[in-house]
From TrEMBL:
Membrane topology (UniProt): Single-pass membrane protein
Listed Basic and acidic residues bias regions: 7-19
Transmembrane segments: 27-45
UniProt-annotated stretches for the region Disordered: 1-24
Protein name: Neutral zinc metallopeptidase
Superkingdom, taxonomy of origin: Bacteria
Localization: Membrane
Alphabetical UniProt keywords: Membrane, Transmembrane, Transmembrane helix
Pfam families per the UniProt record, alphabetical: Zn_peptidase (PF04228)
Family matches, as PANTHER family: INNER MEMBRANE PROTEIN (PTHR30168:SF0), PUTATIVE MEMBRANE PROTEIN YPFJ (PTHR30168)
Length: 305
């Protein structure tokens, strides 16, 4: 999906802690925490769910100054920048998500506070614990922040088989934002029910976040910035295939097959490639949050049409 070239975007919407001399103290003290998070990531577990296991801290470290007074993300000012750069795409996608979710939930009497979003490199400290880039994108409910290392998107393509298209990256941002919506609605806590497996609460929550990403995609070309300019152009079938390639790339079955040479459904935490694609499409084709009830779905393989 392409952004409209002249649409203005606000780089201040996203924190950028890259190149700030590290966020060191907690990382150095939390090496065991990083290891647990890394293992969890490889197993498909949302690092945010490890809160309460002694990995988290009481405060979030503020961004230290680097002496320059500038951030790389401050160069992100237009839709053309979002089309050209991944960090700018995160900024613009976040603003499009804000413009969709806040008014959409108001229809249901819900007032959504926008999540914080941070772009980091190498490592980051959060209220859910210290994390390294190996964890990949994640949402921490304790500080209501979605965290992204832009290097992940290259890995998504080179290691996991996504086609590398723009909507593949935007899908990932929308999925993590979906966890914030779940946190607000109270469904995120269901991820801790039922352990692991194809019908577990963890899988149901992740598939709902995929559905929420599709829901945003259904409305994305109508989202507007503060000046009333649309953020995005209507996307094409090629764009849709990019999103589906990303959903498939992070399916538990594909990751397990690549890592161990076999598939173990009893260990699933995010759902299969086919399930993740199906629930993204459920949100996209219906544009209706009521069709994203993965928690009550009898058949997670076939969303109700």
């Amino acid at each position: 999906m392409s952004f409209n070239d002249n649409t203005r975007i606000d780089s201040g919407r996203v924190r950028d802690s890259r190149g700030r001399g590290g966020r060191g103290g907690k990382i150095a003290a939390g090496g065991g925490g990083i290891l647990v998070l890394l293992i969890a990531s490889l197993l498909g577990i949302n690092p945010a769910l490890l809160e309460g296991l002694g990995l988290g801290g009481d405060t979030v470290q503020e961004q230290p100054a680097d002496g320059s007074g500038t951030r790389a993300v401050d160069e992100c000012t237009t839709g053309a920048d979002a089309d050209a750069r991944t960090d700018c795409r995160i900024v613009a996608t976040t603003q499009s998500l804000d413009a969709f979710w806040v008014p959409y939930l108001e229809r249901y009497g819900e007032t959504l506070a926008e999540p914080a979003v941070e772009i980091f490199a190498d490592s980051v400290s959060t209220r859910c614990g210290a994390a390294s880039s190996a964890v990949g994108p994640f949402y921490c409910p304790a500080d209501e922040t979605a965290y992204f290392d832009t290097g992940f998107f290259g890995e998504l393509s080179s290691r996991f088989g996504s086609d590398g298209g723009a909507l593949a990256e935007e899908y990932v941002v929308a999925h993590e934002y979906g966890h914030h919506v779940q946190n607000h609605l109270g469904t995120l806590r269901n991820s801790q029910e039922g352990g692991t497996g194809p019908r577990s609460g963890a899988v149901r929550v992740e598939l709902q976040a995929d559905c929420f990403a599709g829901l945003w995609a259904a409305h994305a070309s109508q989202t507007r910035n503060a000046e009333g300019e649309t953020f995005m152009e209507p996307f094409t079938e090629t764009d849709l295939r990019s999103a589906l390639s990303a959903a498939a790339a992070v399916g538990d079955d594909r990751i397990q097959q690549a890592a161990t040479g076999r598939v173990s459904p009893e260990a699933w935490t995010h759902g299969s490639s086919a399930q993740r694609q199906a629930w993204f499409l459920a949100g996209y084709r219906t544009g209706d949050i009521n069709r994203c009830d993965t928690l009550g779905a009898a058949d997670l393989d076939r969303p109700a049409s």
